[in-house]
Write a structure and sequence with these properties.
By secondary structure, the protein is mainly alpha-helical. It has one domain. About 70% of the residues lie in helices and about 0% in strands.
């Protein structure tokens, strides 16, 4: 085991240790953020499901019916374009939600920063947790649409964690940098 004096506070190993030791705090803050986003709305947390569902319905109508867009001649169904487009938007949404919020994370949570000793490096993880929640709900909508349109789920869905891991790490690095620059 490496001593804490050897590992610099900004090293990747220190960030992993901080994540592991603060995982309950990160989970609670991310849960609170997701719930507070929909507080006061008519449908509450159900919006996290209906928003991607309606977005996919609009994309399917616009690109399949209005524009008659197709990726290639071999596509079997008219909704394939919308499904592929929605999959790309889903991945982009994870990145965009975290990077857009990153510069204001520390300033926006001044009560945590000033009142107690608070691990600031957890704030980008909270934003990532909320983004991943919305991405998982959107993924459920995407897989449901895939099942309805094509009648089967792609086998490649099992590779999703391998694809998302580098995206999450890149996004977290940028979020830490931007949150430090935003102070």
């Amino acid at each position: 085991m490496l001593s804490s004096s050897i590992v610099a506070s900004g090293s990747p190993l220190a960030m992993v240790r901080s994540f592991v030791s603060n995982r309950v705090l990160i989970y609670q803050l991310a849960k609170r953020e997701v719930i507070s986003r929909y507080r006061g709305s008519l449908m509450g947390l159900a919006w996290s499901f209906f928003n991607p569902l309606l977005m996919l319905a609009v994309y399917t109508f616009v690109f399949s019916v209005v524009f008659n867009a197709r990726w290639s001649v071999e596509t079997a169904h008219r909704g394939d374009f919308a499904i592929i487009l929605f999959a790309g938007i889903l991945v982009h949404g994870i990145f965009a939600e975290c990077v857009i919020r990153a510069p204001t994370l520390i300033v926006g949570n001044a009560s945590y920063v000033k009142r107690v000793v608070f691990p600031l490096e957890t704030l980008p993880w909270v934003a990532m947790g909320a983004a991943l929640f919305h991405a998982l709900v959107s993924l459920a909508v995407l897989l449901l649409a895939q099942l309805l349109i094509r009648g089967t789920l792609p086998v490649t869905v099992i590779y999703l964690p391998l694809v998302l891991f580098p995206l999450v790490m890149l996004t977290m690095g940028l979020a830490w940098m931007l949150s430090a620059l935003g102070v």
